[in-house]
Amino acid sequence: MTHRYLLLFAAALGVFPAPLVAQETKSKRGLVTVTPEALAIHQEAIVVDGHNDLPWQYRAKKDFSFKTIDITKNQPELHTDLPRLRKGGMGAQFWAAYVDASVRPRSQSVKETLEQIDVIHRMVKTYPQDLEMAYTVDDILRIHKTGKIASLIGVEGGHSIDNSIGTLRTFYMLGVRYMTLTHSETLDWADSATDKPKNNGLSPFGEEIVHEMNRLGMMVDLSHVSPDTMRHVLRITKVPVIFSHSSARAIADHPRNVPDDVLKEVKKNNGVVMVNFFPGFVSPEGARLSQRMFEEYREMKEKIKDEKELERAWKEHVKAMKTPPCSIHDVVDHIEHIIKVAGIDHVGLGSDFDGISAVPTQLEDVSTYPKITQELLNRGYKKEEILKVLGSNLLRVMRAVEQAAAK
């Protein structure tokens, strides 16, 4: 059971229940109310979200026809639909082409990832009044002027290429503009943050993959990788990197988050860390709980080999766990910490909506992005700084990657 399945399983048992809003019961910070000033700044921005897992929901619900999930209508069981994307002012969305790492032993990684890439293309074609595929920064700017939402593809997990650089190149030709090097499991060539390391970061083949991504113009995404992998990539990459949906480890001590020494290297690299909204990575208590859950499940799995007995034992184990408090203020704390360590040019938004089983108070779905603008304004940030956080930082990185590849 990988990290996403572990969290969803916990959700089914009432730990981080979905759809759940983690209430900020311990904080004295009040609700954020969007003012006309903040709304005007938000409307001026090209809001970019680095990671949304709506395509996974089509696979999970076995709906590849877009009939069960019609996103022109309100989808209360999901975080994402078109009316709420419009309300949130979304300018460009990276849709995740994710399949679970457990498919690797069955040699299904490439096939199922291609299916998810196909889902994204067909989803965009199904809603042409609202969505349009984008492949470059110029595409994003052009599409934004038409009033549509620019749609891009990110592959979540290097297991999806099945150790094949030819597959990596094919993904790029199909529109993939970033690849997350690992997901929850360590690969032959890169170490994950939530699995045992075996490469001290990257293997020589892993270095080759990073260099090929640089050559292609595909952004290297360091969410989910181990700190050693982060540092290794930052040493060898020729272009800026991204973290499509990660947060600050100094605030919430989870291995998925970015340590301060790495944040300083991201500044030197001119990259961007796009902050995740999941309470299990954002709240200090949530980080402790989700990390402990993952470790305890692995230990239990080693001891109990029968799957039904394992499920029963795990269900009993998690019953006593409580959902920690979390709110929009906690998310903006991460944004502000990254600003303090790496600088205003190196932070963005990577919600992980529809791939997470709990959300913070006031960040319940894709309609709520203007509240981040308001909270940044409340904390004294100027319009030009807020525009960078909302999207222009990511556009700068993507442009740099494109320009390097063109050479």
UniProtKB/TrEMBL annotation:
SUPFAM superfamilies: Metallo-dependent hydrolases
InterPro entries reported in the protein's UniProt record: Dipep_AS, Metal_Hydrolase, Pept_M19
Organism of origin: Telmatocola sphagniphila
tRNA processing in keyword set: no
Pfam families with a match to the protein in the record: Peptidase_M19
CDD domains: rDP_like (cd01301)
One of the protein's GO biological processes: proteolysis
GO MF entries: metallodipeptidase activity
Alphabetized UniProt keyword annotations: Signal
Residues annotated as signal peptide: 1-22
Lipid metabolism listed as a keyword: no
Entry protein name: Dipeptidase
